Amino acid sequence: MNATIDKFNKWAHEANLVQNSSKTNGMLISMQQIAAAHCLDKTDIDLRVNNNHINFVNKTKLLGTFIDRHLKWDKHVKHLRPATQLWLH
Fold it and tell me: What distance lies between CA 64 and its chain's CA centroid?
């Protein structure tokens, strides 16, 4: 995987795109049953962007939407609920 990241870094550099490795997170996305069967919670992955370690997270905010590693919408719905309740009343 690091070889693929290196290729992406080269392409980004040639396209004058700057990556902020401090804002880069990784996430293993899978169904809960598969994650449990393959012990993905205990998997240690060493990926690097510009020689900086990528932190793996269980949930993140991407383009204003909260997602988790099982693609559940619970956190996003909880985030939106207060605003929509005010709007509906």
Answer: 13
pTM for the structure as a whole: 0.63
- Farthest CA pair distance, the chain: 53
Q: Measure the CA–CA gap between 55 and 23, rounded to whole angstroms.
A: 9
Residues spanned by the domain of 71: 2-88
Are 28 and 35 within 8 A, CB to CB? yes
The whole-number mean pLDDT for each consecutive block of 10 residues of the chain, a chain of 89 residues, reads: 84 89 83 70 76 86 86 81 76
Domain count within the chain: 1
